[in-house]
Amino acid sequence: MASQSRAGEPVLHGLEFGLNEWLVEEQHERYLHDPGSVDQTWREFFASPAPAAVPQARKATTTAHDCTDEAAIKAVRVAALIHAYRVRGHLVADTDPLTTEPVAAHPELDIMAFGLREDDLEREFVVDGFAGQVTMTLHSVLNVLQESYCRTVGAEYMHIQNSRERRWVQQRIESPQPRPDRAEQLQILYRLGAAEAFETFLQTKYVGQKRYSLEGGESAIVLLHGLLLRSIRHGVGEAVIGMAHRGRLNVLANIIGKSYAEIFNEFEDAVDVRSVQGSGDVKYHLGAEGTYRALDGRTIAVSVVANPSHLEIVGPVAQGVVRAKQDRAAVGGEAFPVLPIVVHGDAAFAGQGVVSETLNMSQLPGYRTGGTVHIVINNQVGFTTSPANGRSSTYATDVARTVEAPIFHVNGDDPEAVARVGRLAFDYRQAFHKDVVVDLICYRRHGHSEVDDPSITQPAMYDRIDVRASVRKLYAEALVRRGDIGERQVEGALRDYQGHLERAFAETRALSVPDSPKPVNPMDAEEGAAPEVATAITEATARHVIASQTALPQGFTVHSRVLPQLQRRTTMLDAGTIDWATAETLALGSLLLDGVPVRLAGQDSRRGTFGQRHAVLIDRRTGVEHTPLSSLGAQAAGFAPYDSMLSELAALAFEYGYSLARPDALVLWEAQFGDFANGAQTVVDEYISSSEQKWGQRSGVTLLLPHGLEGQGPDHSSGRIERFLQLCAQRNMTVAMPSLPGNYFHLLRQQALDEHRRPLVVFTPKSMLRSKAATSTLTELTTGAFRTVIPDETVDAARIRRVLVCSGKVFYDLDAYRRSSDLSDTVIVRVERLYPFPQEELSAELARFPADAEVRWVQEEPANQGAWSFVGPQVHRLANRPIGCVSRPQAPAPAVGSARRHADEQKGLVASAFR
């Protein structure tokens, strides 16, 4: 496409483009791929034959034809200049409120770099609709380019591959931007005043308390107000905000409508710990729900999702909440009626990997929410870390380019530009249902928290901040200077808002502080089991569900390796050999018939890691998909099985958020192998195990973690039972390791039907999926319920001298050894639910055996892992005698790498349980 001139300059059609050869090549690549994706000037240029070389002798004479050629060539150069500004203009935009010097010119934006000269400025050129014009002088072109791309907004959008999206953005950026009318100016000023007064009030009244102030970034409140107003006007029913702690209190007060008295109460530390929030959390982590009301009386529901200090982890949680709300509202309505807004910090947006994971979700079938508006409150510094040490990219927002999201960098001290960009971002989301980023470049007036001194690490920056007036004051001065409003209006609005705060503060101080309550006894929460839920189904229901497995659409060709599995499922009911996959299918299918929606997501979960599930079938010839459990009839609830992206952290956070907003659904997340949940440990620690205690937030999310030592090495063996049990207290979740398909069936149905559900962690089998010993009968599903303890009724209790207590797969190894050795003095008791620990059930079972019988806990895992450290004290208390532990020796890794060594270890472990 391009060749090199003798002088070494790149040429195309014999024309030199110097520094901007890259630009011409980029346009040519687009032209070759899709001629319609470039402007007409470029199309004509690339379609024309290369101009013939002009003989040296004729250069002194210029013909009319020569002038026409030159004009065409110059028009191409002007088109290249326009394109360069669209691509590079943001680099010279005036977006930093702390910069006092003019932004340095960029060499690739100099007209000389395009072969244009000063004497071309007043010449007319064809511009092919640029700024709505057919022709323009070069001077006018430059004015529009600088106004559009080099003022207080810098736009990045030329990385978007879709030409329709690019043109949509171009038309709105390159059109004249009218100044807001007086009513909007007063609204902006009031919002800035409210944001500033709230922060200064707290700084004055609660000296030295952390609040993670928004000072320096108050325009974020203007931006959020603009988004919500736009949402109301376009019929969006609800907005969900996910954000970390910077500015959170301000958002709760000025956006959500949380009362000042409530917030002041939290500063007074007057919250009753016996409230629904249990022991609670710090005030800048709390969530809230409210109603945003426009001046015309119209409203929109708005909420902020509770979050921990792990910054960006709230992003995928908020996405899950939004997707769940959209799924509930989607029947017969708009596809994306809830607007997700995620507020980030600059250092976290660039530094936290979960941001990239969440962005990757944005267009995936199982996760898309119709586009998220991301707001980066860009303080230009982390805690104390400068951008030079915090990221390798030019901008904190560069990661968003991976999903072709447009990025608008805006100077936080130009609130009118902030409001305009907010409207543009919302409109783009509505038009294309894609993510969009607003990079609000501002500053942080105080340190990371108000007790920190930032001048220690950023002295020059904070010298500039200390002398800089607030954005409210700067904007008010600009309005007065322009004659838009008077000084009395400026001060009157601020006094009114300060008066509201003073009254709320006085009322708060007048309230009596409640007496310190008695400490909550953790054991109180352990007692009192939830009422039992009926989980058995009828035989007719079971047969109806199983029939769906082979009732295929006409002409549908199932893979030859899958069809026999489906056919076997239909025979298992009568043969009494129901395996794990069939029991799970019956559980999920019967729940759908009960009206309970089911969502299942995970890596390869539609087929199943071990080729066992086949929730979605793929036609062998056409690739068409068929979901058997979606054909149960019109009365059945929706079944939504999804293969997730290769992520654990964001994926599990999303499902947790989804479960919060869909308490009516069974929400399942499956790890490919149990230990892969390690990558989501933050979600387990900060949300699943503790959200009810911290925020009064109850989730019914279910984790399916394949677990079992089977010679596959350290990384595919353990679901890390010990880590989950360490987090168990006050009935915060259920941890189970069922050993029978029928018990797994009842466990899933119990989880879905129990009104008082908590998170459920199930350590699911691998080799047992196809074990002929681990099967159930239809009667086990049509009668009974989940059994927390499975007694051993194969032996004479009076003759027992050894009691082995275990969970999961090891039971079958122990039972096989006992049978082969013809031992009748040993009983094997299975604990199916590890937490809440089944004290009554296990105590009753142990009481059946002689008091002098030896009791041992048996597990496959090393002694420092698995359930032993948790269940040992429990069993010791119930047995009222010393308890032994049979396990692998303590080890830093869950299992060995050699399959042969594993087999030897397993054989020795099982034998030692009987010695």
3D structure, described in words:
This protein has 31 helices and 27 strands. It is an alpha/beta fold and 915 residues long. Helix 10 (314-329) packs across helix 22 and helix 19 crosses helix 21 (580-593). The longest helix has 25 residues, at 64-88. It is globular, with a radius of gyration of 33 Å.
Briefly say what this structure is:
The chain has 915 residues and is α/β, with parallel strands linked by helices.
The amount of helix comes to: 25-40%
Helix tally?
31
Reported for the largest beta sheet, the result is: 8 strands, mixed
| Structural Rg | 33 Å
Please indicate the percent range of residues in DSSP E strands (runs of 2 or more).
Answer: 5-15%
Oligomer: single chain
What structural class do helix, strand and pairing data support? alpha/beta
Number of strands: 27
- Tell me, rounded to a whole number, the average pLDDT: 89
Task: Enumerate the strands of the largest sheet in spatial order, edge to edge or round the barrel.
Answer: 6-12-13-11-10-7-9-8
The CA-CA distance between the termini, in Å, is 80 Å
Q: What would you call the shape?
A: globular
Taking pLDDT < 50 over at least 5 consecutive residues as the criterion, the unreliable ranges are 1-11, 51-61, 272-278, 513-528
Keywords for this entry:
915 residues, alpha/beta, 8-stranded mixed β-sheet, 7-stranded mixed β-sheet, 31 helices, globular, disordered N terminus
Summarize the helices and strands and which ones pair or pack.
Blueprint: E1 3-4, E2 10-12, E3 15-16, H1 21-33, H2 40-47, H3 64-88, E4 124-126, E5 135-137, H4 138-149, E6 153-156, H5 163-173, H6 182-205, H7 219-233, E7 238-243, H8 248-256, H9 260-268, E8 288-293, E9 299-304, H10 314-329, E10 338-345, H11 346-351, H12 353-361, E11 373-378, H13 387-390, E12 407-411, H14 415-432, E13 436-441, H15 459-466, H16 471-482, H17 487-510, H18 522-526, H19 539-547, H20 563-575, H21 580-593, E14 598-602, E15 617-618, E16 625-626, E17 639-643, H22 649-661, E18 666-670, H23 681-688, H24 691-695, E19 702-706, H25 721-726, E20 734-736, H26 741-753, E21 760-764, H27 778-782, E22 789-790, E23 802-806, H28 810-821, E24 826-831, E25 833-835, H29 839-846, E26 854-862, H30 868-879, E27 883-888, H31 899-912
Parallel strand pairs: 7-9, 7-10, 10-11, 11-13, 12-13, 14-17, 14-18, 18-19, 19-21, 20-21, 23-24, 23-26, 26-27
Antiparallel strand pairs: 1-2, 2-3, 4-5, 6-12, 8-9, 15-16, 20-25, 22-24
